[in-house]
Predict the 3D structure of the following.
Amino acid sequence: MYHNYSYQGALAASERMRWTIQDVVGEGKKLDFSKPFLPESLARVESLSFLNAKEKLILNQIRGHAYLTMFGTVEEFILPFVMNSARPYSVDDSERVRALIAFAGEEAKHIQLFKAFREEFNRNFGTSCEVIGPPSAIAEAVLKHDPLAVAFLTLHIEWFVQRHYIESVRNNVELDPQFKLLLKFHWIDEAQHTKLDTLMIDELAKQYTAEEITKVIGEYLEMGTFLDGGLAQQVQFDIDSFSRATGRVLNEAEKKEFEQIQLQANRWTYIGSGMSHPNFLATINYLSLEGKVRLEQMAPAFC
Ligand SMILES: [Fe+2]
Ligand SMILES: [Fe+2]
């Protein structure tokens, strides 16, 4: 086996690290709109040379708002997926069931946490920011796919959460401390979810032939294409949110540069950083070397 994860270990860690929404939002815990929310490696606002410092900050916060809202959205398909995976229940396997129920409970908590964030953001940002959705339509489109493909997409998401926090948030002193706190608490739970997803994939994949696994990897990539279409739409929403917030209307050349740089920034954030994650690729490689090579060839387009 290429990993040493266990339901027992993930459950113990989840119980040890348990936190409540009140630990992260509420009294005295406010967003600081004088600071950036997202690390530059994800926001990529600095290369938009036609924006001044204040406009770059506003765009960074628009992207930060979309980032947390997007988590709330994907959690709406992860939650029912994990709950279905907890069935059938076996009395001999109670740690597995408890670990998966804890996982589902944590995703429900995240949905609530990000809603609370969004309400505070909307109260203080000044203008509205639209985000792709609705979550129920996205969940319906994703959950139509083969369960193993949904598990791959979930694992991809959980690993990029780890990557973003460890590589560019944890030691970043520029970011708003409150936004950073939201990312930190989310990361704590997601660290166990990566293990549980991997274990769910181990179980599920046993029922598939090599050919079926190749087909399922194709379905995972189809969902990536679906998401990519959504990201192009998100960039258009961000242009509108930016103009509403700053009063600045971009000319054609500026708009083109904005679209190109920001689409690629979104692609890296939600697709490339998951698809190219070494641990995600290790899972795919374990099941299909051909699949792993295919992903490695595709990832640069999303980086
Ligand atoms: Fe989550
Ligand atoms: Fe998660």
User: Anything to note?
Assistant: The pocket of fe (ii) ion (ligand 1) is lined by residues 71, 75, 107, 110, 186, 190 (CB under 6 Å). The mean pLDDT is 97. The longest helix spans residues 210-246. The radius of gyration is 19 Å.
